[in-house]
Design brief:
single chain, alpha/beta, two-stranded antiparallel ribbon, 13% strand
Length: 325
């Protein structure tokens, strides 16, 4: 396993990590979740990603039970949570980034995960109804209380991240250390273009999600639509309609042929492609089966195959390289 610094912080994260969105507490059995976490940890993964909204809190409960059972040294792993969407409640103050919800959500996640502190705590989306000053102060209070160690954002714009840093600097507080954006061969603009300046100015780290574009960057959708995938989960119609497009499948077919020509699989090539970006601190893997995770954890094997020539061939297939206007 390779370990990378989270931006310019002193924290080291495994370049491959394991996330629980749509799987833990929902798509897979708890014993399968335990198998996945055990395999990941044994292969050097030290970061496990979660959120209050995942399976409406059940994902954190499952992960917390596994972490307690495994009894791995607390210093050897990192766990995250995210605040914004709540754990199912829709009443006032049960969502968003107000001081009240941030504090209550953090305490709830600590209980569900059965930990004394959360290593990485993300603002899951920007909150237009809460002053950014309130959010920055709330995160710093949690750090001061020892309940979280680092805070960051997820799917915020570069401008919103910099606004938080301006507030932090004004009041001598700690700004967001990391951002969790979607990044893969089909979604590139934020990581490759929009954030370019703030990597330099604030040392932003990234914990990217969906490196396989919700499973599209595999061979499973090249023929008929398979059962038992995340795109077939009830309530995921929006994801299927957004990602499973004929134009994407045409490109996936070409990418899959290239991967086979290289003697590897498309998932491994797609993840290795993400890891090739030096601004990616860690790539969050998702899996519903042990075999899937075992394959993607071998993505580093493909790195030597991504020569300059191969990267040019990939760009020729994708035709979506971000360009500054």
């Amino acid at each position: 396993m390779e370990y990378r610094r989270l931006g310019t912080s002193g924290l080291q994260v495994s370049a491959l990590s394991l996330g629980s969105w749509l799987t833990f507490g929902k798509q897979i059995a708890d014993d399968t979740a335990e198998e996945l976490m055990t395999l990941a940890y044994e292969r050097g993964v030290n970061f496990f990603d979660n959120a209050e909204i995942y399976a409406r809190g059940q994902s954190e409960i499952v992960m917390g039970q596994i972490l307690k059972k495994m009894n791995w040294p607390r210093s050897s792993w990192l766990v995250s949570s995210k605040v914004f969407f709540g754990d199912g409640g829709k009443l006032p103050n049960q969502t968003g980034l107000s001081r009240k919800h941030i504090f209550e959500a953090c305490h709830a996640s600590l209980r569900r995960l059965q930990v004394e502190y959360i290593d990485l705590y993300f603002c899951h989306r920007p909150d237009q109804n809460t002053p950014v000053e309130e959010t920055v102060w709330a995160m710093n209070h949690l750090i001061a209380q020892g309940k979280i160690l680092y805070w960051g954002t997820s799917e915020w714009s570069a401008q919103e991240i910099m606004e938080a840093h301006m507030v932090a600097r004004q009041h001598h507080l700690i700004g967001p250390v990391m951002e969790q954006p979607q990044y893969n061969m089909f979604v590139r603009d934020k990581v490759e273009l929009e954030f370019l300046q703030i990597y330099k100015t604030v040392g932003l780290g990234t914990t990217i999600w969906s490196p396989l574009f919700s499973g599209i960057l595999t061979d499973k959708y090249l023929s008929k639509f398979p059962e038992g995938t995340r795109l077939s989960i009830e309530g995921m119609d929006w994801l299927k309609e957004r990602n499973l497009l004929p134009s994407h499948i045409d490109k996936v077919r070409e990418l899959n042929k290239l991967a086979l020509d290289l003697g590897t699989s498309l998932p491994k090539m797609a993840i290795a492609w993400c890891l090739h970006n030096p601004h990616v601190s860690t790539t969050i893997l998702g899996a519903s089966r042990k075999e899937q995770l075992a394959e993607t954890l071998n993505a580093f094997d493909v790195a030597p195959l991504l020569t300059a020539e191969v990267l040019v061939r990939i760009e020729a297939i994708l035709e979506n390289k971000p360009v500054a206007v």
